[in-house]
Specification:
Rossmann fold, globular, alpha/beta, two-stranded antiparallel sheet
Length: 255
């Protein structure tokens, strides 16, 4: 891809995170696992999450779990910092957030062209910001995260209520976020890029002039073919997969 494909001065790149830049499990799933290990999620919160999920299934079968953050009710936001500290250093070969190297190279390319870089994700906003910081440790590019914000309990600045603040960053919300960022920074969306892996990213990809379906699900692959969007596959190398598989064994042996 040449530097002339988009005007640098008014261009930006919008990246989804889970499945696009980061292989599974998702950032939120990784964080939930950390909270469960710490005993930070009570059985009551789990029961409320299930009850809310069942009620939402009747109204919106496809998005029932997306905005359901009741498992976080009463949980301290400070635990995000503890989770971040628990991750291996980003420059270490055994990084706990193994972003696709192809994705990091693409972010570096955009930075070299003078493009702004945004992470636009349905994950929790504090987790997306951690992801942005981890990427910036490896790629010297300024990255802004735009994700699902969480509401705080009344009278508290550090305890989550278990509800989201605003809308879940998925589907049309991603496209609206891209438009808001474009207006804020004077970007030309026709010169911008967007990268996503699922139907939840489709509206964001439609909003820009250069859409790229990465590791596309069947639904997004079908849309990409109809719209003649570029497609690509980003994956871990065999060596990275082996390191990830043997890491728990190595940690256990070191105890």
């Amino acid at each position: 891809m040449s530097a002339g494909e988009a005007g640098a001065e008014a261009a930006a790149a919008f990246f989804d995170i889970d499945g696009t830049l980061l292989p599974g499990p998702s950032l939120e799933s990784r964080f939930i696992g950390f909270l469960m290990e710490r005993g930070a999620i009570s059985s009551g919160n789990g029961a409320r999450w299930v009850a809310q999920l069942l009620r939402a299934l009747l109204r919106d079968p496809h998005g029932a779990a997306a905005g359901n953050k009741s498992y976080l009710a009463g949980v301290s936001a400070e635990l995000v910092h503890d989770w971040e500290k628990s991750l291996a250093p980003a420059f270490c070969n055994s990084d706990s957030l193994p972003f696709f190297e192809d994705g990091l190279e693409r972010i570096a390319w955009h930075g070299a062209q003078g493009h702004r870089v945004f992470l636009v994700s349905g994950t929790l906003a504090p987790l997306a910001r951690v992801g942005a910081c981890r990427i910036a440790m490896r790629v010297p590019v300024d990255i802004e995260a735009c994700a699902t914000e969480l509401e705080m309990e009344a009278g508290s600045a550090q305890v989550w209520s278990g509800r989201i603040a605003g809308e879940h960053m998925s589907g049309g919300a991603k496209a609206r976020a891209a438009r808001r960022l474009a207006a804020r920074y004077g970007l030309d969306l026709a010169s911008c890029f967007a990268y996503g892996d699922s139907a939840a990213d489709g509206r964001m990809l439609e909003a820009v002039g250069h859409a790229v379906a990465v590791n596309a699900t069947r639904g997004l692959a079908s849309v990409a073919k109809k719209r003649d969007w570029k497609t690509c596959v980003w994956e871990n190398s065999a060596r990275e997969i082996l390191k990830a598989a043997t890491r728990p064994l190595a940690a256990k042996a070191a105890r």
